[in-house]
Write a structure and sequence with these properties.
The protein is an alpha/beta fold. Helix content is 35%, strand content 16%. The strands form six sheets. The protein has an eight-stranded parallel β-barrel, surrounded by five helices. Strands 1-2 form a two-stranded antiparallel ribbon. A two-stranded antiparallel ribbon has the order 3-18.
Amino acid sequence: MGFYVGRGRKARRAFGFDEVAIVPGRVTINPEEVETTWELGEHKFPVPILAAAMDGVVNTKMAIEMSRLGGLGVLNLEGVQTRYDDPETVLDEIAGAGPETATQLVQKLYAPAIKEELIGKRIQEIKDGEAVAAVSATPMAAAKFGKLAEEAGADIFVVQSTVATIDHISSAYDTLDLEAFIDSMNIPVIVGNCVTYQVTLDLMEAGADAVLIGVGPGAACTTRGVLGIGVPQVTATVDAAAARDIYYKRTGKYVPVITDGGMDTGGDVCKALVSGGDAVMIGSAMARAKEAPGRGYHWGMATPHVALPRGARVKTGTTGTLEEILVGPARTDDGTQNFLGAIKTCMGSVGAKNIFELQQAELIIAPAIRSEGKVMQASQHVGMYR
């Protein structure tokens, strides 16, 4: 069912995080007694949150800290970490650039070729920190670096592009046979990004061990503005979860759905999970961490993973330690810290013992839910009006 947007043309209504709300349950549970763990292959993660594979978000130290806290940090194999022996100096240079020089500087700094020996070195640094090593590359780079990363000790490989499909047509270059690639890997492969039921199902049938959902919702991503492409995250996640469930019924294999992007607060994360997500991937909120290589700044993307300012660096908001942002305790009242606490409290309020039961909670359309009655917050500049 759709709405007519003109003579003879229908469009389906879709919903984002700000347009829905979660309905409290008939039974409530002590938040300390719920189970938030999600699984990927042989790995179990107590915190259903991944830090995005962006240079301003994850370096080896951030990946280690994410793992220590129970989440997963994904390292970009096509950024400064694998182009420079001392990437911190490069990131400091980017952070210090002014609006008039930032774009040109980043283009220059991303020109050097990727050094294959640094791929193994970065993975080893993460493993030395007793952390799960997850790395990411675009499809063309995955064909080249996938086995290299696996042999270096990577635990999880992410194949990520702006819009992922099984069939990519090109006469200009060789395309990645995604099914053959996944079959050749002996570690879990996450694939993304997509926003539709059919493509999610296609990726699962190709062997993906998890699927990233989201085209253009990220705080710095320009896909929706430049190309006009995307589906709001609630609808995209619901559709992807439907594909996951039908695939599980057909095959007995459960493939996690990871909502990627568009989440800035704990409430957004909870809505993503209630929409059907098994976990979420976050960029800008993680970039606020004091441990993040972006130093509390976030840059737009020319392609997935690659930081590229659109004329200026942008402060992401209130900074805090990664521990405060991920598992608390929060020092702010705007929902940008203690994401795990938000998830647990939401689960307790709807009566969900685990993520699966949280996915069954009721959603309602409520476009004014965030602003309803918040006059005092607005006048005092607290909470969401900070």
